[in-house]
User: Fold this.
Amino acid sequence: SVTAAMEAIVLYPSPGIGHLISMVELGKLILTHHPSFSIIILTTTASFNTGSTAPYLHHVSSTTPSITFHHLPTIPLNPSSFPSMEAITFELLRLNNPHVRHSLLSLSSTTTTIAAFIIDLFCTPALPLGSEFSIPTYYFFTSGAGCLDCFLYLPSIHQNLTKSFKDLKRDLHFPNLPPIPASDVPKPMLDRSSGEYDCFIDFFTHMPKSDGIIVNTFESLEPKAVEAISDGLCVPNGSTPPVFCIGPLIASDKGRGSGGNTEECLTWLDSQPSRSVVFLCFGSLGLFTAEQLKEIAMGLERSGQRFLWVVRAPPTKTEVLLAGQDPDLDSLLPGGFLDRTKERGLVVKSWAPQVAVLKHDSVGGFVTHCGWNSVLEAVCAGVPMVAWPLYAEQRLNRVLLVQEMKLALWMNESEDGFVTADEVEKRISELMDSEKGKAVKDRVKAASEGAREAMSEGGSSRVALAKLVESWKRS
Ligand code: UDP
Assistant:
C-alpha cells in the first residue's frame, strides 16, 4: 500500500502526540536537505488515550506528500491492567515488533532501499530489526542532551548500586551536569524491582549500540551535556556512536484545523498588552486533581497577572489512562472565579494552539510541565518559564532548565507533588515582575537567538543534519 520510491527513510515513533510531532518535523527537516527521499512513518494506534492525533496526521498528509503514514495494526491492551503509562507503552511496543518487522520487509520489497531506520527510545525492541535487514539504525532522542547524558549514564550508576532510587536520599552525579536528586529520575525508575526499571536500563544500554543518536536540541543550549556525550563520558567504554544535534525542531503553528480553541485564544491575546500574559499549559497528558485546579485558580487570581490557562478534567480514579472529557469549569473552579477574572484571564478547555500562543506578542511567561517540546517552543519564542514537572523525564528537565540553562524559575511542591496557591502566586509574580524574572527573560532571549543561529545557514544544527543525510547517500 506504500508508493514505490527510490530511497526511503523509515521513522518509528512511540505513541503520543509529542513523539509523533517531533518525528514528523524530523521527516520534514530531512526533506529540506534531501527532497527526493520518501519519508515513511510507522504509526501505532493505541487502544488508550495518547492525545488526539487524527487531525494532525490528516494535515501532514495533505501538506507534505513526501511523508506517508503506515499504520501498524491496533493491539488491544487494557490500560487498567498496567501500573503506569510507561508499562503499557513498553508492552505495546514489544507486541508491535512482529508488525514492524513485517512492514520493513514489505517496504524493502516495494522501495529500492531503506536508507535509514529511525526509532525513538521506547521503540528499542525494534533496534535488532535494523541489523537483521542491514539498515543503518538511529535513535531520535526527543528530549534534550542533558536528559540523554543522564540516560546514557544511568546503567553505570545502576551497576554500582543496590538500593532503589526512591530510597537513595542523595544526589546523583552525571558527567558535566549539576547534581540531580535521585528522586528526580522518571517515576517508573524509582523502584529497582519494577519491570519498568529493567526496561529503561535495557533501553539505555542499547542506545549506544545504534549507528547514531539524533537529538532535538542545539549545541549552544546545552554545550556541556553535548560535550560529555560526544566525548564518550556517559558510557562505560567511551564508545558513543555519532551524536547529531539537529534542533530545535518544533511543530509549525499552522494547520491544526479549527479545533483546539485557536480562534478564541488568538483573538483574546490580540486584545492584551505586549508580553503581559502568563500561559499555563501542561503538555498532551498533564492532569490535575480538582483540589489542585482550585489552588491554581486562587494563586492566579491573587497574582493579579493576566493569564491564559488550559484546564483539563481531573483524572477519575479508575480511568487515568483513558480519554478525558471536557472539564466542567463551573464546578471545578472556585465560585465566581471566571467572572471575577474575566477582564484579564481566559480559561480554555483541554487544548490550546500552544506554538501560536507562545509566539504571540502578548505572551510574557509560561508555566510548563517541562515536556521537551514545550521547552523548545518556549525557547524559540523567547518566553521565560516556571517549571512545574508532572511526569516522564520532566523533573530532570526542571533541574537542568533552572540550574544549568537558567531559563526557568523553580515551582516548589510538597512531597506528594501538591503546589499551593501561595506558591503559584509567588512564582508567577516573580516571573512577570521581578529582577530575577528579568534575568531569566534575558537568558531566554539569548537562547532564542542561539536557536535561530543554529538553524541558519552554516549553523551547528544545519551542519549536523548535512553530515547525517550525506552519510545515508554514500551508503
Ligand atoms: N500542545 C498543544 N496544546 C496543548 C497541549 C500541548 O499544542 O494544549 C502541544 C505542545 O505545543 C507540544 C506538545 O503538544 O508540541 C506536547 O509535547 P511536550 O514534549 O511538551 O509534552 P508531552 O505531551 O510529550 O508530555
About this structure: The two ends are 26 Å apart (CA to CA). The chain has a mean pLDDT of 93.
